[in-house]
């Protein structure tokens, strides 16, 4: 279970270090492959074009991963914007997930304080984009109390799952920040409350409700999955060994693979209306590996014209 960052100074220091973004992120290349803490945050520049045709093709390739965030703050802003768009379109239950190490390893010293500070980007974005009263529900009462004290100028309210009444009737949008499997009963109770009059939307940010299944019976796991099936994944960013899976509402799911010609860049492999399954991912990874091998061994200079269809236009070198 998540623990509150005990020293107040830890969270204060984390908040000072983070530059909170309150607007759309500038367009840049993907950041650090999403999965390496020590990876470069700036993508290497693409190779210069050799002709006007090459330049046009290069621009087309750049557009493939232009939807991806430039950095972690940009990703969190995107998750807030996608959640707001979902709520504004009438959506009631949404999930925003960023499956990257910076938000996964919360047991490291100072990690939780940074995550709480980063969550403000999401909450500010939701409040600004929806114009509704946003209630942020944190997993621990100590965290909620600390952030209330620090964020006196916030445009949203804070509560915790352990509060006697975490949700009020005047709350417009409720956001649960990283609820885990031990809190499932409280999460379901709040979700049920929000489904009653008045009906209000619920967003879960980086939920961990399906973890810790060792020793848990099938019926319990099935109940969790049934509950989660009532939610729409409005934002998702998940790294793969050779690419990434990405979704930002209202756009489709996108599967990217590494561009062998440009370090730290992606090519679009496939779009779908539903989350890609394991078979889709294996197919994409195999295609990515084959294309990288072909590129390395080829005697031709190939410009990728339509990466979605894997179409190559080659000129003899």
Jot down its keywords:
DUF1995, disordered C terminus, disordered N terminus, two-stranded antiparallel ribbon, 9-stranded mixed β-sheet, DUF1995 domain-containing protein, 317 residues, 8 helices, Chloroplast_ADK
Structure description:
This is DUF1995 domain-containing protein. Pfam families: DUF1995. The chain has 317 residues and is of the alpha/beta class. The chain has one domain. The chain has 8 helices and 11 strands. The strands form 2 sheets. Strands 3-2-4-5-1-6-7-8-9 form a 9-stranded mixed β-sheet, with helices on both faces. It has a two-stranded antiparallel sheet with strand order 10-11. A hairpin with a 4-residue loop joins strand 7 and strand 8. Helix 1 crosses helix 4 and helix 3 packs parallel to helix 4. The N terminus and C terminus are likely disordered.
Summarize this, please?
By secondary structure, this protein is of the alpha/beta class.
User: How many DSSP H or I helices?
Assistant: 8
Shape: globular
Q: List the helices and strands in order.
A: HHHEHEHEEHEHEEEEHEE
| End-to-end CA span | 59 Å
Strand content: 15-25%
**Main sheet overview:** 9 strands, mixed
Number of domains: 1
Overall mean confidence score, pLDDT = 76
Briefly note the structural class of the backbone: alpha/beta
Q: What's the β-strand tally?
A: 11
Poorly predicted runs of 5 or more residues: 1-22, 25-29, 35-62, 299-317
- Helix share, percent: 25-40%
Describe the strand arrangement of the main beta sheet, using strand numbers: 3-2-4-5-1-6-7-8-9
Radius of gyration, taken over Cα atoms and rounded to an integer in Å: 21 Å
């Amino acid at each position: 279970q998540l623990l509150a960052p005990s020293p107040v100074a830890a969270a204060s220091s984390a908040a000072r270090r983070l530059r909170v973004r309150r607007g759309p992120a500038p367009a840049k290349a993907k950041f650090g492959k999403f999965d390496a803490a020590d990876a470069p945050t700036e993508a290497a520049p693409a190779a210069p074009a050799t002709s006007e045709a090459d330049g046009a093709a290069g621009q087309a390739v750049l557009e493939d991963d232009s939807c991806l965030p430039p950095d972690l703050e940009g990703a969190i802003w995107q998750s807030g914007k996608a959640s707001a768009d979902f709520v504004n379109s009438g959506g009631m239950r949404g999930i925003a997930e960023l499956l990257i190490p910076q938000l996964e390893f919360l047991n490291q010293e100072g990690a939780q304080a940074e995550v709480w500070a980063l969550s403000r980007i999401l909450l500010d974005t939701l409040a600004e984009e929806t114009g509704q009263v946003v209630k942020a529900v944190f997993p621990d009462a100590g965290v909620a109390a600390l952030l209330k004290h620090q964020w006196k100028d916030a445009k949203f309210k804070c509560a915790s799952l352990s509060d006697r009444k975490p949700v009020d009737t005047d709350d417009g949008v409720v956001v649960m920040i990283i609820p885990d499997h031990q809190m499932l009963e409280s999460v379901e109770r709040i979700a049920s409350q929000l489904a009653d009059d008045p009906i209000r939307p619920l967003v879960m940010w980086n939920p961990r409700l399906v973890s810790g299944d060792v020793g848990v019976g099938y019926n319990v796991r099935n109940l969790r999955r049934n509950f989660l099936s009532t939610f729409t994944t409005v934002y998702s960013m998940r790294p793969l060994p050779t690419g990434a899976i990405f979704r930002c509402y209202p756009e489709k799911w996108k599967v990217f693979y590494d561009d062998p010609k440009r370090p730290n860049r992606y090519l679009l492999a496939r779009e779908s209306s539903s989350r890609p399954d394991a078979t889709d991912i294996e197919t994409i990874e195999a295609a990515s590996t084959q294309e990288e091998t072909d590129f390395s061994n080829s005697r031709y200079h190939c410009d990728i014209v339509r990466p979605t269809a894997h179409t190559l236009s080659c000129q003899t070198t």
